[in-house]
Fold:
Amino acid sequence: MNYTKQLLEKVAANNEVIGVIGLGYVGLPLAVNFAEAGIKVIGFDKNPDKVDQINRGDNYIKDIRDAVLREVVENVSLCATTDFSRINECDALLICVPTPLDRFKKPDMSYIESACTEIGQHMKPATFISLESTTYPTTTEDLMLPIIERESGLKHGEDFWLAYSPERVDPGNKSFHTRNTPKVLGAMTPDGLEIGQAIYTKAIDHIHPVSSPRVAEMVKILENTYRLVNISLINELALLAGKMDINIWEVIEAAKTKPFGFQAFYPGPGIGGHCIPLDPFYLEHIAKQYQFDLSMIHTAGHINMRMPHYMYIKIATALNRHQKAVNGSRILFLGVAYKPDIDDARESPALEIMETVAHKGGQVEYHDPHIPSVQMHHGASLDSISLTADHLAQADCVVLTTNHSAFDVAFIQQHAKLIVDMRNMVEQAGGKVYKL
Amino acid sequence: MNYTKQLLEKVAANNEVIGVIGLGYVGLPLAVNFAEAGIKVIGFDKNPDKVDQINRGDNYIKDIRDAVLREVVENVSLCATTDFSRINECDALLICVPTPLDRFKKPDMSYIESACTEIGQHMKPATFISLESTTYPTTTEDLMLPIIERESGLKHGEDFWLAYSPERVDPGNKSFHTRNTPKVLGAMTPDGLEIGQAIYTKAIDHIHPVSSPRVAEMVKILENTYRLVNISLINELALLAGKMDINIWEVIEAAKTKPFGFQAFYPGPGIGGHCIPLDPFYLEHIAKQYQFDLSMIHTAGHINMRMPHYMYIKIATALNRHQKAVNGSRILFLGVAYKPDIDDARESPALEIMETVAHKGGQVEYHDPHIPSVQMHHGASLDSISLTADHLAQADCVVLTTNHSAFDVAFIQQHAKLIVDMRNMVEQAGGKVYKL
Structure:
């Protein structure tokens, strides 16, 4: 029997089972979207706490509405499991595992490798497999394919189909979520592309097919490299503008009036999150295999890496004007999330600045309405303190590191002795307010 | 008498005379816009040919409609002159002179200095002066002001007002022209800003005021640095993609489906024109005074500078596949303008590639429907040949350097033996077509 025809018929009848591997901020919304569309979904994760939470109908991802998760769990469209042998119940497997960098900024592919091994060991024939995790071009074809074929003994293009379709999740984005964000899809064969489109169309409004997985892999890298490079550029210009007595925020607002050929980026204490600080370095990694030096990414990465240090200098300079040293001063950071109104502190520059300040003898405190405690590098954890008039007044310096909309800037300004504003939150600089 | 009040009243009554210094692609459209609004305009230029053409009603700027120029000249709203002593008839002076880089990529400020000297020697009190030319931040305050005060013996803020308002002319842009492109304006004093707004509002729909000339100077640099950096980034990624067997054009089209946080730029043989290749280097120049290294601009500039050389290699590689050397081959370039559908070859990368090919022994020919002849570096001039089937067939290699919409790609593809396409004009690569 022809597996392509068999699977396409199953999909057309809405009888396929979707397996989503990795139930984080990418995988869980995707699983919920398929379940909402009436497709049976099995979510796989190695973390039993996450699995239990989902099976109880408890939501842990901000961008999903609690009621929606509860509903799809209650009507048995979605269940979660730590048992990867249930992969053999699935007709399609969507891989949403992390692809972090290791301590030497090299891509850590172990999550993808492990997922592929599990898939190879448990999958049945006639399965469609798609990777959603960001990675360097050639990963799908050169890393995943050999593992899956070896572990399964099955043959690509006959027994299964491999594709790459990058996630474009933007946590906190009010306008664009999983369903209405167009999705790029590149498969290794035309029938793989046909199957992938038939499946993804159920959860996502618009699928943009490309000619190969490597093109799709490059798309995601381009999108995030664009952001890294432009944020680094505006950070560098902000540092120069500071020396030239030019308000960079005013410059950006004015440049935005150009009705063509300009997109505004804003300076800040550095780049955080799971994508922009990492993705370009996957490309840098693979470029080395081609004897190619990505000078723009390298330079941008350098600026970004240095920003937290410059921000430390900014704090020290502000304190110095008040005849105080960092050493012995009490410094209150407002916001440790890497962007406003989210509860994620991954790769957050605020943490790195706090580390540096603590290392130099400063007494570090923080408040974040969305993040009750953080882990510092040396292992100790720090709890968010309340944002009271007293706490503000007792600090020698208050540092605005994340522009959460919950922050009452007037209240902060009223009670703080000294403010270093890294996010243009205070309207007028001067006096006790120092701006990036 | 209070000069501010006097000038504002004159402007309110539409009785002011505007002097536009420099009648190129920025100055002439601006002059025409004021004249169309019923304001008397005197255009100043040192080139008697330009002045004569304007006074005859002959238009030489593509973005101006011929009939409009003729009309404003005939009804005596606009006249042109080489006589700079007539500056004393003007109430406002708008400076639109070139600010090129010299051979060592240092800003050549001589045109601005010369304009300021003429102004200082001839101006009457109660004159508003605005610079439109792109330049490094601090030019207006630190370079222009001392020259004008010294030459005129007048005092800024009392006898005259100085401002900076960058041009945003985008030649060939069908949607945005002088009047409907918002204009940034930064003056040295509040009354200067008030006067400037009152004047510019007559020719331009939206004025965006900023707090100082240096902020406005930085705005223009930011806009064009953004473009330089992003074009350089995509050029670098295109070179890597070529090695990785990834079609960069397909990648960009797919990335464009992201509905937020992305703006598409396209690779090409290098950056041309009067703005993008130059403006960032003004900033690099002034940054040195502040002991500041603009690493992003430096890196972007490096990539851009090397692109014509990479393009030469591309041509040599394509010829090599056909067992031919550049030396002795006949190579036909299609398009020498720096962007499509314009007649401007300033800083055009096509010219540099042609120089290199000629230097290596290639027989260089070109066709451009908008540019009948070009000047090569060694002084010889080269004429555009006609785009015939014979000329295409006789070339060992046809290079697509500018994507003029007049080019019939199917015709070119039909008759050319070998094509190197630097602008993604041919839909399918492969066979005799090599793409960037």
Notes: The domain at 249-435 of chain B is CATH 3.40.50.720 (Rossmann fold). Chain B has 14 helices and 15 strands. Chain B has two domains: 3-210, 249-435.
